[in-house]
Structures are given as C-alpha cells and as structure tokens.
Amino acid sequence: MAVAGFLLWELRRLCRVLLFLSQFYILSGGEPSQPLAQSDKDPGPTRTFTVVPRAAESTDIPPYMMKCPSNGLCSRLPADCIECKTNFSCVYGKPVTFDCTVKPSVTCVDQDFTSRKSFVLNMTCRFCWQLPETDYECSSSTSCMAVSCPRQRYTANCTVRDHVHCLGNRTFPKMLYCNWTGGYKWSTALALSITLGGFGADRFYLGQWREGLGKLFSFGGLGIWTLLDVLLIGVGYVGPADGSLYI
C-alpha cells in the first residue's frame, strides 16, 4: 500500500509538471522544441509582431478648418471652406448666383438654422484683380523710391480677404505706387531747415550727408541754399534719402 501511494503521488506530480509545460508552450506561441545541437545550426522560422497604429487621417484636422466657423451661415463662409461651380460668362458688375458645397468636415446652416451641405451663393460678377483695394491685401516694398518724379511703382503680390468672393485666382500680382516710410517726420525736417539749415542739419537728418557737408562748409550757400531748402522741404519736394515718405 505504501508503494502504491508513493507511485500515485509521483504520478500526480508528473501530471502537474506536464500541465505547466503545456500552458507555458501555449502562452509563448513557440514551435515544438528541437534538440539543442539542431537549434544552433538551424534556428527555424521566427515570428515577428508589428504593432500597426490606428489610422491617423481620421483625427487630422484639414488646414482650411482653422478659417471655417462651426455652424455658421453658409453664405458667410470664407472662400477656402467652400467649392463653387462658377461661370465666367456672367456680365461684369451684375449680381450672379453660384451653386456651392461645403468642404469635408465643414458644417454650416441656412437662414432657418438648418444644416446644409449645398447652398446658393450670391455675389457680384468680377474677377479678383478687379476688386476694390479694401477687399485685398498686398505685400509692401522698401526698395523703391516713394519720393521721385515720376513716382515709382513696384510689383506686389496681393491676396483677397477670406470673406470676399470673386472669380479667378485669389492671389494675383499688381503694380502699386511706392508708399512706405522710414520714420522721418516732415515737421522735424522743416524745423531743422529753418533753425539749423545753415549748418546742413536738415540734410543730415534726411540722410543726405553729402549735401549736408556742402551746406556746412559753404555756410548754407551764403544763405541762398538755406532759403531754397526751406521752400523745397516745405512743399515736400526734398524728402528722405532712402526714398520713403514723411510721416
């Protein structure tokens, strides 16, 4: 009886070990074990696990969404938020209507606060470059002469404001008059010309150091040059050396 009890206990212990090894094999997902010498020569196929992230495009916000108000009136959406079927055969300056649809992820409502994906847009038939100057913004230039005869122009890149609708490209080049300032005050230049013009202070202030030296060493051209500069600066004919306008 003692021997039979001992054998039964050993058998239970062996079953527990086999059960543990089978569970470990299932959890590890491994292949059947091979002899050690054979595994050194031929490791066999290995399994690699690649973590595939979730699609990011579903959470990405389109760039135009920064300009598109949520649940606003469809007719007041910026041009970057809608797509319209335009007709270039309309009569310039006349009212015209176009069928428009909002871009993906954009929501808008009509006058009755009903959500819409398509709507009718009322606008004036004209190209973007024909808009008034208040409806677009243009780049500035500090490399042209604002004070010259004839007055100089420069090529500016203009962009239509977001809330304005028009035909054609919303970015266009346009020739504009030079209109920038370097911070020179007309009142300061005139005051220096009247008080210290004989020493060339007005010319030095305007950045015209050659003329300033000429007035300094000629005592204002014996007063004649001084009087002429008072008149020329007073009428705005003589300006800053960098070609900018007075403030």
From TrEMBL:
Keyword ATP-binding: no
Keyword field: Glycoprotein, Membrane, Signal, Transmembrane, Transmembrane helix
Location of the TM2 domain: 183-230
Signal sequence interval, chain numbering: 1-30
Highest taxon of source: Eukaryota
GO CC terms: membrane
Membrane topology: Multi-pass membrane protein
Family: Belongs to the TM2 family.
Protein name in UniProt: TM2 domain-containing protein 3
Organism field: Lipotes vexillifer (Yangtze river dolphin)
